[in-house]
């Protein structure tokens, strides 16, 4: 039997490398072993989510058009139902980095296509990922590279490639932006069949040599007749690049960093950890997988429990998984895709190419109400399978009667395990004590006590501590 | 405190007509041959148009608004939009919300207004959105807005059915989020935010108790939303900006019935709203503003219309100087752009009037520039 | 390829009908089609959930003619997940709801007359009823999808018999979807999860399998629906592969249809022509082939004249083919 620490560590890993796991699964994985589980997350053998099943019941989610909702539902479905959690979590990571929004692209099917790239090669070579993203129609349109012409360069993609996708502010000059942009002239999208009157058609990358600027460029100290891929080759060799990606991974998977635009001013909170990740990244030839392995097996990761404010997606997907709500096709799915947006993280529609501000900026009084209620609505619903199984574990933990303290501890354990500050814990305990002792003896007792567990779970969901993951 | 000829600060109610309202069939140039030629399937016969003057009239479903116009309390602003309309709902809505037609903006125009009105975020309900989520117009870092899907059930921990139990849990919530100094800046920030959320919910909860009205609103969603607006407004909780929306006006098909139903619902809800406010003597400090992200294509497609450019805005209220503003865009085929009416009034100019003349704020930094502003707000004492 | 000639049979592409639209002259995710007694057609728009306004009510049944006339639509807000359509001898339209676990029926002009069905897995109970089809005696076969079986009812919902069971063996089913009955009373079931179509006698005896074995015109991927023409040829909507696979009555593969609607339907044309920018955008497209291809074909029906009507959920349209009798092949060196 795995001990308490193993359980706590495994549930931490599954929250970060995925969207959380039920206690049954955490126990199974802890039994299997931590490093073994990390390997499994990195090299998943389970089949991908069966999209055919999704499309059969929700045909609108296959090729969503202008409205983001069906695409959001599609992705949410995959996040909830995936058996390859790290692959899906990493897709979300890359979506944070290469933030592309449907508000401008207006072709949600092509955003899903971009997310699929993240699934397919997001754990592979970062240089290849950059090349694929540079050719991705949604990205090209999002950052106007289709307006980047030989005789009229548009710098939007060129600038963001350096500022947000690889190096970070302060590691290149304005001249570099210009030269970089020139190298990507002619990287555009073919004319696609219009959306009227039959819906969305494929959109493909097109390289037009006649629109490419073949003259010499000087970029980050290198001179030559560079094309886009040459630029990417130079970019990824920069020390700033590996540090930038390492810090991104740390910020997303380990602990909240300041917002990205401040990174050239503020040092990482744990420079040594970022350096460890960076070294692995470089020595592996810019492969992501070895960095993930190093990270998840490191002490700084294992010691980082509850150091991050959960993103809205983590709140929604984690809660659905914990409670067993919305498994498989469901008429509520298409509405559920909008929930993270209500809390400030509309997936496939970030506010700008800078992506979302994370950490405590996820929380304001409006979003806090949504977060607390979303979780409380579900964990207090004693009919949901996940809640039922929590109740069963609580009921079986201490015989037919238990103290208020045992109730609180059991609930905290099964919601995490999560540790509360002394102040919060006192309140939870007072609440439980104010309602007397708990019995599971009779059917009536069981029903009443189930209710109390549900209410306690809701109260835990409402705490400050629970906003962290 | 700024006043507009009465003691209460100005309040703005924004009603967004989501989906792209068909300007051409909303304000109808009923003597214009181009109208009938380009609308073979969707033309409103001349005798059914609600005529406002010798050239223009309203859609027949808008009778209550015709009254408003004739009583002088409604401004109709023609040809509103911006250059190079992308004809995409989402992009266009973003542009209207952020005042950034050329780049992807992150701050909403009303969020910036809220920051000016309540820089220290003293009132968690300076702005209230009635609906799910937050429209980008109300989003900016550091600006908090209450978003109320349904006023009767708004609050924290609403799934706890037993009221006494919920009250006890909310007390715990207040204690848990209460001062916990020394727990670090993030926890302290969360603590304050939680208390703000609770305070906002508590304040809003009081509104329905003080509200009583003889006006019976209709059953449409927009009637319910505007009733929630009236409930909060008349409770005098310091809310200065209300936002709500109705739709979808995206009438690619079956427009004849859909568009009529939408305007029936909107017109009736607006009438009920103003009757309600007048009854409670709470109308004098309110201006209502209606917009849509774009107008629709001039030529119909057999049963509907597709995305267009120029649209029409309405401003309603006792302090609105009723009448026509800007001009109806030219309808000749050669004057159209991609088959659309061409905007001749920048939307940011319309916002500027609202911000400068009504809200008494400095519009320029909010809308990112200076634009020709139609003068549809009465000057003080008028 | 608008004409396909194989084994002495010829299929011609006739036309496209409809367009993507949440109301009026169009369909939203059309997933089933059925022929009314007067030759007009019912088209089911599966629609979507979770959207507002007009779109919130886009689940509906449209009644149209082969000449692109929209007679009307009905059933809005009466379903959660509508899926199958069938017309009885007395010209009533039946529609299944795989979430609500009921079968509703309507008069020919769209008046809702009633519904039956109980959720569950016992005999006569339903779990995810999807495809439905009448036999010549007006008994209704219901694909009871999540129970992996076919159930036979009177049209009033009295249970007659059932067969199936979960699995991939002969006679077993895996989330079956569409169904049809041929003129001999045999029943064809799209055995979705098993990538095949099974043919049963009217009382459930397995007779034949289509597409199960690779090479025998197999390679079906998650077939959604099936229909049989007057000569006994069998048309399987190969949903996963986006084609319609045609077999002879012995199960030999004959040909496949991939979609040919490169010309706009009448309703589609109205939209294009009222939008000058759309007209321009089409003119810059190099290759119009994708316009014609099936994009997620789902439902199929064959009328008395052996016209084959296929719904495409993503394109919001129908494509119509006709089986031509007495076809004369033009000379090949023409």
Rough outline of chain C: globular
CATH superfamily of the largest domain in chain B: Alkaline Phosphatase, subunit A
* Residue-averaged pLDDT of chain C: 94
Q: What is the rounded Rg of chain C?
A: 19 Å
Strand order within the widest beta sheet of chain C = 1-2-25-24-23
Q: Helix amount of chain C, in percent?
A: under 10%
Number of domains of chain B: 2
Largest sheet of chain C: 5 strands, antiparallel
Would you tell me the overall average pLDDT of chain B? 93
- The topology string of helices and strands of chain B comes to EEHEEHEHHEEHHHEHEEEEHH
Write up this protein:
The complex is a heterotrimer of chains A (469), B (382) and C (334). The two termini of chain A are 25 Å apart. Chain A has helices at 4-17, 23-32, 34-42, 51-57, 69-81, 85-97, 102-105, 108-121, 126-134, 137-142, 156-163, 174-183, 228-236, 239-253, 271-283, 288-297, 299-302, 312-323, 333-336, 339-342, 365-379, 385-397, 404-414, 422-434, 443-461, and strands at residues 187-189, 205-207, 217-219, 222-224, 401-402, 438-439. In chain A, strand 3 (217-219) and strand 4 form a beta hairpin. With 469 residues, chain A is mainly alpha-helical. Chain A has 25 helices and 6 strands. Chain B has 382 residues and is an alpha/beta fold. Chain B folds into 2 domains: 11-151 and 218-367, Alkaline Phosphatase, subunit A (3-Layer(aba) Sandwich); 155-204. Chain B is 34% helix and 15% strand. Chain B is built from 10 helices and 12 strands. In chain B, strands 1, 5, 6, 7, 8, 9, 10, 11 and 12 form a 9-stranded mixed beta sheet that branches. In chain B, helix 2 crosses helix 8 (255-279), helix 6 (185-210) crosses helix 7 and helix 7 (221-234) packs parallel to helix 8 (255-279). Chain B is globular. Mean pLDDT of chain B is 93; it is low at 1-5. Chain C has 334 residues and is mostly beta strands. Chain C contains 4 helices and 25 strands. In chain C, strands 1-2-25-24-23 form a 5-stranded antiparallel beta sheet. A 4-stranded antiparallel beta sheet of chain C has the order 3-4-5-6, with no helix packed on it. In chain C, strand 16 (187-191) and strand 17 form a beta hairpin. Chain C is 7% helix and 41% strand. Chain C is globular and about 60 Å long. The longest helix of chain C is centred in the last third of the chain and has 8 residues, at 266-273. The interface between A and B is large, with 53 and 50 residues.
